[in-house]
């Protein structure tokens, strides 16, 4: 049932997204998890405590952050399994809230639209909604690169990873992953406040994203074979060569694959909160500057890769259903 829930959740979210009226009415699972993380941060992360104590409390906080949504998701999964087949539909709708296929494409496309209709000023405003770097330091090429990098990275941790862990552990696995990823984004920073307290959250997020990041890179490479103008061979070679250059053990895989497929150089030095992060470049773009047309090409690659992801889960779901029916039939024959 877990694989089938993951597949149906992908199909539901790609079609419907998460409606604004629903968000305005009840919020979103990420906002609920965020409130829990903020509560634990206020209660356990004290500046007067030693780093050792803050690291231990960070581990304790992470366990709570994982267990609360994970156990709620597991309970719902078991309950809905007992209501099969109606419960499967409900589970797919709930699982779709853990994904962001539709909204990711919309937000990135807004950056391309802004650059083309309003120039750099509107482009900076649009990209500031999806990246954490300082928008006022970005030129047009920097805005375009930021949008493409965000698209590649969020395809991994906002779509492939939650689908992967939902397929492994059902609603409980998907919810626990989403909690881990949200914790990393909120407290997994290398700042004086979170260096110790958020260490466990950052390390755990790196661990659970390992399989999805590699799968995402491979999906982008395969998509490049199917999107006119993309470079599948370069996507593969650049991913293998440059992924390890990224400061994240995971983000480099989809970003490097995207850089190779587009024939661009991505990453490089960036400014966050006034501080420059001197990252290496990935890709072989040379002096060619990224443009809004590159954002649109990246979106074509993303959408094709997302179709491949849906197809992968559809095939695995069909195999699992066939094996289940085969085993059930053999059991019935034995009786």
Commentary on this structure:
The structure is a single chain. With 335 residues, the protein is mainly alpha-helical. It has 12 helices and 4 strands, in the order H-H-H-H-H-H-H-H-H-H-H-E-E-E-E-H. The strands form 2 sheets. The protein has a two-stranded antiparallel sheet. Strands 2-3 form a two-stranded antiparallel ribbon. Helix 1 crosses helix 5 and helix 6 packs antiparallel against helix 12.
What is the strand and helix layout of this fold?
Layout: H1 2-16, H2 20-26, H3 29-44, H4 51-82, H5 86-96, H6 101-127, H7 140-187, H8 199-208, H9 210-226, H10 232-242, H11 252-262, E1 265-267, E2 270-272, E3 275-277, E4 281-283, H12 292-334
Antiparallel strand pairs: 1-4, 2-3
Helix pairs in contact: 1-5, 1-7, 1-12, 3-4, 3-7, 4-5, 4-7, 6-7, 6-12, 7-8, 7-9, 7-11, 7-12, 9-10, 9-11, 9-12, 10-11
